[in-house]
Amino acid sequence: MASYLARRTGYMVLILGISSVVIFYALRSAPGGPSGGGVLSPLSSQEVRQAYEKRLGLDQPIYTQYFIYLGHIATGDLGTSLVNGTPITELLKVHARNSLILGLSALLLSYLIAIPLGVLAAVKRNTWVDQLAMGGAILGMGIPNFWLALILVYFFSLRLGLLPSAGCCDPPQLIMPALVLAAEGTAVTMRMTRSSMLEHLRDDFVRALRAKGLPEWQVIIRHVLRNALIPVISLTGLRLGWLVGYALIVETIFRWPGVGYLLVDSIIRRDYPVAQFFSLLLILFVLLANWFADIAYGLANPRIRVA
Amino acid sequence: MSADVALEVKGLRTTLFLREGRVDVVRNVSFQLNDGETLALVGESGCGKTLTALSVIRLLPDPPARITAGSVVLDGSDITGVPESTMRSLRGDTVSMVFQEPLTSLDPVFTIGDQIEEAITAHRKVNRREARDMAVEILKEVQIPSPRQRLDDYPHQMSGGMRQRVMIAMALVLDPKVLIADEPTTALDVTIQAQILELIRAEQERRQLAVLLITHNLAVVSQVADRVAVMYAGEIVEEAPASEIFANPRHPYTQGLLSSIPSAAGDSKHLYTIPGRVPDPRVLPPACLFAPRCPYVISRCWHDHPGLEASNGHLLRCWNPQPFIALKAVEPEVDRSVATSE
User: Which terminus of chain B has fewer Cβ atoms in its 10 Å neighbourhood, N or C?
Assistant: First the structure.
């Protein structure tokens, strides 16, 4: 176990290192730059631009810039935004908090919907309940989330006037982004819960539990569901990764000031320090999520824990 | 102690409702099981013995299987058609069941302690500590060493024999009247089999337990059964005390089963097998179900369905019973002469 963890951690560091190089080069090879219309006015003179680049060190070769950046990170200096001079640590506090609120709401919402419906669909297999739930799941997987977002805004904000179309950070403003962010994961989780339930409902121990005289709900919820959740839990790690990707789109559409929104904005404005830091942060998050999924799998399944 | 009837089954019929139509898989099965007695239900795979047991405890896979006739009297009360809630309160309390495969019959993600305790708390108002103490007590009784520590084990951490002991402990913890054991030793190796059978027999004596033993293994039957009912294609074809069945089997099917046991002193290199195969329950023979495979078949067997007739406590469903002579396998002629002469 210890050597496994060490190897996992080693991979994580390696992936972070490689991605930091890729991100660093990719940002700087994109046309424009902070001096080319991103931060400075596009109308500023050649001299002003050169002075600005010199001050930031952008006139140096990219690898030199990279190592200077690494040096700063190593001493705990994350830098400041080129756009408004806000320290990245400040941005991190506000935006990470907002993203966590949105992400966790979406995750919670999707499990609250997906697991009960998945169980119900399995127990009421081939009835209208099952067909309705599975039909919904296909829609959830099929509809692109940016389109779903627009449709929801159209109906609930423009037509019905029930919910604000964008903004932060009151509960009504949270509802639609959380719903859109949850949609696909809910559908996948529901289908997985259903098929995993069906698989375990056929297990011998189900009959043995009934033979003990347990109430049917206890057989289903306590035993079959507990077994059926093992793959669902391990899917959580993957889902956290998807959430990160979708957060960029959903936060941008709903102008939810989270990490995704900040990242998209900083890339458009060529705000190098912000874009660099937050892309790496998201990569780190995905890596940690996968790591967590492995651990959670062991917690849910005693046969793996011991092995 | 007087022999009270623990379980009585009368005219049980269990039907599968399939797309092709209704198929009776248990037909007119009746038997009686007294306190402290072991009745073995014997027959080939698919003869309906497990479905009979599941019908008694009402755990048939529904759909497609349903009881369509007959009555079941458990511990003096008729449980035919009682609601599921009543059945639930009887299962695990008055009547328990032990299954063939102890590994898959235990939930892999719960400790055995949890699984025994929930059998207790499903029927008794006891707190956790009391349930735990009862679990330790019963594990001790089925001879599991250091029972208090084993409570925290998961099923995969135990051996097959240990797991079956746990299953038996779980079945007996509430002191039921009837234990249904469905092939309890089939998944275990031979030395463990003997221990498990010995355990069941010891518990039976201690508790005056009525045991319905379902098996295809006649060696197991000879070790523990008081009476034997032989099933063929969903019917009981012969029922008698165990000693009588082994000494004087009268139904040709029973005789065939006994002839198929490999004996250490066997003079034949080849094992006897009953010719043919179990009939498909969708297309049964017209009268006697065993007629197509029977060595003593007479013309009446094709027209009249034989009834289960009693003589001296020996029930038999046969028109033409013959005294038992161990049937011999037909030795294939491996002629060396052929090879040499050519």
Answer: C
In a domain, A95, yes or no: yes
CB B120 within 8 A of CB B145: no
Please give, rounded to a whole number of angstroms, the shortest distance from the CA of A215 to a CA of chain B. 7
Domain that holds residue A141: 89-306
Q: Are A207 and B59 within 8 A, CB to CB?
A: yes
Q: Which of A202, A207, A212, A226 is the best substitution to test chain B (most B C-beta atoms within 10 A)? A: A212
307 residues of chain A, pLDDT tens digit each:
677 778 888 888 999 999 999 999 998 888 877 777 667 777 778 888 888 888 888 888 888 899 998 898 889 888 888 888 889 999 999 999 999 999 999 999 999 999 999 999 999 988 999 999 999 999 988 999 899 999 999 999 999 988 888 888 888 899 999 999 999 899 999 999 999 999 999 888 999 999 999 999 999 999 999 999 988 887 887 788 888 888 899 999 999 999 999 999 999 888 889 999 999 999 999 888 888 777 777 777 777 655 4
* Cβ proximity of B57 and B180 under 8 Å: yes
ipTM of this complex > 0.90? no
With CB atoms and an 8 Å threshold, state whether B122 touches A214: yes
**Among A residues 223-252, those touching chain B with beta carbons less than 8 Å apart:** 223, 226-227, 230
Element (H, E) at A149: helix A145-152
Give the β-pairing of B314-316 and B309-311: antiparallel
Residue A96 located in a structural domain: yes
User: Comparing C-alpha atoms, which of B183, B309, B328 is closest to residue B256?
Assistant: B328
